[in-house]
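Okay, is this right?
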Amino acid sequence: MSLAPRPAPAPAEAVRVMICDDSAVIRAAIARMLETEPGVRVVARVANGRQALEELNRQPIDVAVLDIEMPEMDGMQALPLLLRADPGLRVVMASTLTTRGADIALRALRLGAADYIPKPTTAAINDDSFRRDLVAKITGLARLRRRAAAPVGAAPATPAALQPRPASRIAPRLLAVGSSTGGPQALFTFVHGLGPGLPVPVVLTQHMPPAFTPMLAEHLGKLGGPPCAEARDGEALEAGRLYLAPGDRHLLIEAAGPRLLARLSDGPAENFCRPSVDPMLRSAVAACGGAVLMVMLTGMGHDGLAGTRELIAAGGAALAQDEATSVVWGMPGAIAQAGLCHKILPLPLLAGATLDLLKGGRR
């Protein structure tokens, strides 16, 4: 089937969404969630990948929500064909909350999907937090699609009011990373850019359910950056390795003489999240003082703001992803607008700036 790429809609138009799922119940549920949002239109509902390709050839679409398991043509078969037909299309994979579903969804991200959502259960259909997250992903991805299609120079610059702080003069002992909505795809770029041989350990909190974090660690470990695994309670943190907070557990840092240890906590959710960035940062400051470098990637909400305040007060440093490349500029925007960042950078530049600070640069 030969499909000609369709031009992106004008920026003033509503976000155009296609829902592709073999369940009519799921299609209707997702459509109801989206159609309550001003500026979002569900323009197509289809039952398999072949129908999605045919629909993409009929009309412009910003974002497709694509189920993985469907008859005739499943999501993994359809994904490369959809992206070939329209390279600017943003695809959100709908995955079951199982280890197999998580592995397939993360493989899809590495093949060009923009993000994933857990396939909605009966409970999720009536959960407003699920709807908010879905809408945030779809509207954020549509904004990135349209910005990429805009004329060169049309992307807004970071506001001049967001003045950077001077870099910390304390050499980092630890790199801490936080991310949420849009985070997996951003992490693939950032971790790959870090490369191997980092002089410090890396701790990472990504808002993600338990079935997904082992698979995320596995995929991050295959990028040519630092080796990655879910953190284990009590293990010593080694330079050059990345430790991911397991789903539904906070990752904390503890000092044991000259060593740093990982601690896992079942403490209450913070900022409606477990794992949460704030307890990771508070414990890192308690263990290392200001010898921590924080990097905040795309994410909804303000998790990490309070912890970053403590870090900066202790003499540490923070970098944030800029608004233009973030799916949602909530978490990085919160620390940027609070004046806590040394630099606010596009995603492709963050790894280089991080390496510069870890290796003693102060620019």
Remarks:
- Residues 128-149 form the longest helix (22 residues).
- The chain has twelve helices and 14 strands.
